[in-house]
Amino acid sequence: MRARSIGAATATALTLVAARDLIQKKHSLLRNFPVIGHARYLLETIGPELRQYVVTSNEEERPFSRDQRTWIYASAKEENNYFGFGTEVDIEHVQGHAYIKQRTFADTLPDTHDPQAPLPSAKVLGGPRGRAKAFRPASVVNISAMSFGSLSGAAITALNKGAALAGTMQNTGEGGLSPYHRNGGDLVLQIGTAYFGCRNEDGSFNLDKLKDVVAGAPVKAIEIKLSQGAKPGLGGMLPGAKVTEEIAEIRGIPLGSDCASPSRHTAFSDVDSMLDFVELLATETGLPVGVKSAVGEMGFWQQLAALMARGDRGVDFVTIDGGEGGTGAAPLIFTDSVSLPFRMGFSRVYGTFAELGLTDEVTFIGSGKLGLPENAAVAFALGADMINVAREAMLSIGCIQSQKCHTDRCPTGVATQNPWLARGLDPASKATRAAVYLRTLRKELMKVSSAVGVAHPGLITATDIEIMNGDYDARTLAGVYGYKDGWGKLGPHLADEITALLATKPTL
Fold first, then answer.
1. 317, part of any domain
2. How many domains does the chain have?
3. Is the same domain home to 164 and 266?
4. What is the domain-level CATH number for residue 387?
5. Reduced to 3 states, what is the DSSP secondary structure of residue 118?
6. Residue at a domain's end among 414, 435, 450
7. Is 482 part of a structural domain of the chain?
8. 283-329 pLDDT, tens per residue?
9. Which DSSP string corresponds to 298-362?
10. Same domain flag for 290 and 149
11. Are 145 and 174 in contact (CB under 8 A)?
């Protein structure tokens, strides 16, 4: 009798817990997997002890270590994101680790503790080429290209609302501009090889459709995607079974039919015709236009810089994606071994433009695991003007690095089109977390800049950071990547302008 009573009480308790889990909106995992989802949080609680004795250290996991994920989670939730008792990094032996050199004295610096403090780009996007809708981006940190279809509608909605709250931009990804992108956040419209949302029936580019898309949404710039770090030079196939009525309408493709994305663009065939295409889009829309690419052979970049040096045509920005960048799905050989890592690729491209004195005329954007303060600081020191974050933004809205993006079975509803799994992600609460993470990253960058003695991360130079290159030996970024004097620095007029802008008190 007693056993029956205990069993009944246990069943009642589990039912109540399950009901609460299904109703609550704070934790996606619990909404999708009531009761059993609590096991994950229990294991997370005792995870440090388990890893210490059984599995891995806090710095060993990939692509993001436990410490890195913990920092993002804590930042997004406005919890204590500090770490105690000192570093776990073997600081004199970890090759490739970056060390930022603080300065003892500095001029007057901005407040580094205000989470709402603005951190705009030092450059006006489209300004040097006189674009009609040139503007200064309000944030040096923005959300990278992630398409609806790769991410769920709930995830895109959360990120867009988060972008609006944080004053950042969101890149649509090449999958087209969806209704989920229309939740208040400013957009960078990405155009890929399949021209989703602005294509003819045969897959060729349609300018009129592009102009209609731009006119009906808060699009601030256009990015032509040439390749991405995780799968450069690789086309894609969207199986007909995944081409729902909604996706077909957004992308402009037939319902239920396989849709292949070519590996190369058809609207242009070389650097010269690409620049004609860039100028066409800029003229017809008034928007700044740039390109996104991973870095492989350097002939493309050399030709681009040489043609831009003439002054009559050019891109307004280049987004450099590192080979360590993420993707929903790609062959292992491409994720592991095709295209250069970010630091190596970015430095080569920047140097190509620097040789011709063009770096102040172009906005350089970096992506590929740059949503962590250390990596971001290195990117700025190498000459980046802004950074885009993708997987880190996903982590901020609930991703647990289960690495099931390619299976459509993401347990937290972020990278899936499964309606049941996607319902677990509450866009309203996750939008706040995304915004807090983005603001926290900006605040951390301001703190690092202040430690170096400068007002803005764009003023950190390639001699302010050293990289370990062997036991007890380190070299400056400038030395590691062959930077000449002045490379990685803003021109004097840009440096003075952004310093004065940050020193100006906002009017009430």
1. yes
2. 2
3. yes
4. 3.20.20.70
5. coil
6. 450
7. no
8. 999 999 999 999 999 999 999 999 999 999 999 999 999 877 777 66
9. SHHHHHHHHHHTTSSS--SEEEEE-TT---S---HHHHHHSS--HHHHHHHHHHHHHHTT-GGGS
10. yes
11. yes
Smallest Cα–Cα separation from 315: which of 373, 349, 362? 362
Rounded-to-integer distance, Cα 122 and Cα 460, Å: 12
Kindly report whether the global pTM for this prediction surpasses the value 0.70.
yes
Q: Which domain holds residue 20?
A: 2-84
Instruction: Specify the 3-state DSSP secondary structure of 32.
Output: helix
pLDDT in tens, 351-383: 999 999 999 999 999 998 999 999 999 999 999
CA angle at residue 44 from 40 to 45, to 5 degrees? 120
Among residues 84, 105, 126, which one ends one of the domains? 84
Q: In terms of Cα–Cα distance, which of 469, 378, 465, 375 is closest to 93?
A: 469
Size of the chain in residues: 508
Confidence of residue 37 (pLDDT cuts 50, 70, 90): confident
- Is there a single domain that holds both residue 155 and residue 259? yes
Give the list of residues 6+ apart from residue 463 with CB closer than 8 angstroms, or none.
476, 477, 478
Is 126 domain-assigned?
A: no
263 falls within a domain: yes
| Integer Cα distance of 323 and 42 in angstroms | 35
